Amino acid sequence: MSTTTPRTIPLLSGVSEILDDYDGFVIDLWGVMHDGEEAFPEAVEALQKLRAAGKRIVILSNAPRRSDSVAERNEELGIARDLADAVLSSGEVTWRNLKERTLPFYQKLGAKTLLIGPARDLGMKEGLPYEFVEEIEDADFILLTGIWDPADAVERYDFLLKPALAKGLPMVCANPDLEVIRGGNRELCAGAVAQHYEKMGGVVQYHGKPHQDIYRECMELLGVHDASRVLAVGDSLRTDIAGANAAGIHGLFIAGGIHCEDLHGLKSLGDMMRLVTLCDKYKEYPVAAMSIFRW
To answer: Entry's InterPro entries (predicted)?
Structure first.
């Protein structure tokens, strides 16, 4: 009887164990640095010590808001601006594409858009050359930033998506995440609604992890030219680890984030086996894993 040995993923007690292997660090926010309500003290300490060690750091977030807005929110949560060389968000990359209209997708867009998202995302409107309308019948495309209510299911948006599909309206999605954990509770993100629209037959343009345009800009901000000397820290196999792998950089997986219910914090050999199984499911593998981001 033959046996097979599953792929092994090193489990670290702290990022300091691999400090000398990397010059630049790409740090996710939600699930790594905070839970939407407060910063994780161990993660803040890790950033402080990475900075003290002279490492280049870019905070890379799928937040559907401008980068400066994300940095301001970080400060409110206890993550100081000087803990990173730059903050880059999916909202920032989306806004720039809407503003500059360089890509063929944007060159074809009309002048009127309907924004679907909560009030905290309304800053995305500022400075854009579009008319923001209130009715789907008046729109040329949809700008999707998020959901209205934490309890929403994707079907709530069908009253907008079905007529949008009938009109052939394209959608711009400023956050590819499917869900987040806010203060211990799961809630949908824009990516889930966009994915629902795609399954209906709609066309969606995404910006943010794991899509590579945001990684190209991130690498420029880091100023590290050897991708093998960059480590991306994230809690999502679908976005953080997949995006890092596609960009040719290494991924450090944080098990206590979005996949925490599947992995139980990596406290036993059985949990490690579950991690391997989960990575097999996504076909994405980090170079190492940690329960939480710590020094």
So the answer is: HAD-like_sf (IPR036412), HAD-SF_hydro_IIA (IPR006357), HAD-SF_hydro_IIA_hyp3 (IPR006356), HAD_sf (IPR023214)
**What is the pLDDT at residue 183?**
76
Report d(CA 226, CA 115) in Å as an integer. 39
The residue with tokens 């949908």 is 188
Q: Which pLDDT band holds residue 151 (cuts at 50, 70, 90)?
A: confident
Task: Express the helix, strand and coil content of the chain in percent, nearest 5 each.
Answer: 45, 20, 40
Cα 182 from Cα 131, distance rounded (Å): 32
Delimit the domains of the chain by residue range: 15-62+210-290, 93-206
Rg (CA), the chain: 19
How many angstroms separate the Cα of 203 from the Cα of each of 49, 83, 198? 44, 38, 6
Q: Identify the CATH class of 15-62+210-290.
A: alpha beta
Residue 262 to residue 10: CA distance in whole angstroms? 18
Residues 181-207 have pLDDT tens digits of: 787 788 899 999 999 999 999 999 999
pTM here is 0.92
Question: Helices (DSSP H) in the chain: which residue ranges?
Answer: 41-52, 67-77, 90-100, 104-107, 158-167, 190-200, 212-222, 242-247, 260-263, 269-282
Q: Which CATH architecture has domain 93-206?
A: 3-Layer(aba) Sandwich (3.40)
The residue behind tokens 């050999």 is: 269
What is the per-residue pLDDT across 222-240, written as a single tens digit (0 to 9) for each?
A: 999 999 999 999 999 999 9
Mean pLDDT, rounded, of the chain: 92
b/e sequence 73-99, b meaning 16+ C-beta within 10 Å: bbeebebeeebbbbbbbbbbbbbebbe
